[in-house]
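Ops channel
N.P.: pipeline sanity check, posting one input/output pair.
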């Protein structure tokens, strides 16, 4: 029995959909692909492959053809991982490349590697309430309860190519009384972990008027947490209600109080 195996694969998990499609080329010819998996040449870690972004219906039907190509750039597969900032006519994209070994038992004992192409930033609403996000470019998007979305943003040209791309955003909960915007959320590898945020919600006017003893404040607050988990160039940012941190007033003075802002 004689078996042939390709040692290097490329898995397209970019999330790009119509009208866009991604194609890899070498010397002007499209590399063989099926079901978002492309077979790579043996020198893909030393030599560039051309990443071609095409509009729907466009394809390289022959060597050197650029039919339907809207953007192209050369990239080398990383031995471990790397990030990719790509400005295109359809907008900016931020991706990461991650290379992993394939379990030999899954490929009949062959030794293979797969490089996965995926968005750098994925936002997840882990709460049961819809959220609004105000992104760094002042674009506002809605993130439904239990929904995940990939996010891309412009990268300043001429910046530090070794630095990992980062961005900022604000968020608020959508309920009967819409919360005010949160403080700045920095989406970066350097702030991995959980960060609590205090969101203020204006109290109902009728409630304030009926509050004879002044027990209700002008605003109500709720605590939310943003969890940031970096993994080899990818960045997962999730939003949830509550916090892992607890504040306790252990003062013995009767007039001592504590305020969280």
């Amino acid at each position: 029995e004689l078996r042939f195996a390709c040692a290097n694969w490329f898995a397209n998990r970019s999330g790009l959909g119509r009208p866009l499609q991604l194609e890899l080329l070498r010397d002007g010819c499209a590399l063989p692909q099926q079901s978002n998996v492309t077979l790579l040449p043996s020198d893909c870690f030393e030599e560039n492959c051309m990443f071609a972004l095409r509009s729907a219906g466009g394809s390289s039907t022959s060597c050197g053809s650029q039919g339907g190509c809207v953007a192209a750039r050369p990239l080398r597969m990383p031995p471990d991982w790397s990030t990719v900032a790509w400005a295109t006519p359809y907008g900016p994209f931020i991706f990461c490349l991650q290379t992993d070994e394939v379990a030999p038992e899954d490929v009949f004992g062959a030794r293979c590697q797969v490089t996965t192409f995926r968005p750098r930033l994925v936002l997840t609403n882990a709460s049961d309430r819809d959220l609004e996000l105000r992104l760094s470019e002042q674009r506002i998007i809605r993130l439904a309860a239990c929904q995940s979305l990939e996010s891309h943003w412009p990268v300043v040209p001429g910046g530090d190519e070794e630095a990992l791309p980062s961005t900022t955003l604000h968020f608020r909960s959508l309920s009967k009384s819409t919360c005010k915007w949160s403080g700045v959320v920095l989406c970066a590898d350097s702030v991995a972990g959980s960060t609590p945020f205090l969101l203020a919600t204006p109290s109902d006017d009728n409630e304030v008027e009926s509050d004879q003893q002044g027990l209700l404040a002008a605003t109500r607050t709720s605590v939310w947490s943003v969890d940031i988990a970096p993994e080899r160039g990818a960045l997962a940012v999730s939003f949830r209600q509550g916090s892992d941190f607890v504040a306790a007033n252990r003062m013995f003075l009767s007039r001592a109080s504590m305020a969280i802002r």
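N.P.: looks fine end to end. The chain has a mean pLDDT of 82.
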